[in-house]
Amino acid sequence: MWLITLTDLALLLVGFLVLIQATRNSDGDALAQGIRAGFGSRAPQEEAMPVAAAGMMNFAPGSSMLPAAPDALVAWAHEVTRDPRVLLTVTGSSDGTAQDVDPTSGNGAVLAADRARTVAAVLATRGAVSPGRMVITTDTRPGRSAATVTLAFAGTPSPDARP
Questions:
Q1: What pLDDT shows up at residue 163?
Q2: pTM beyond 0.70
Q3: Which partner for 92 in 26, 101, 105, 116 could form a disulfide, CB atoms 3.0-4.6 Å apart?
Q4: For residue 82, what are the domain limits?
């Protein structure tokens, strides 16, 4: 029985080496695309480059409560998302001090995520942008207690888009 298993392993190794040799001179991107297609996967999307930002700054240490009224941020988000190509990224952060952590877990990344979720929820509930056009991220580098909203263009311009 062990001989059959050893033979199977040897054949797999030979098959892999033949695949490596056969694709040595081929285009790596085309090969990756073919493998993705074989498994029913899509190509990774290029990350959109941020072109503008706004946000809520100066959260209280350890808190995800908004430090001020979000009216200006909501108005900005509503205006910039008129273009259907615009996607918003809400990035929560903490200042890295021992006081600026989530009170329950004691973790700054959890607090940063809570801040980003709070801002994203306000933008969604006030109708500034649909939840499907927002991405929530965290920034764990020490910095400021904030939630920053950046906009980026994704896709191609439509013929009826404003200049």
A1: 46
A2: no
A3: 116
A4: 50-153
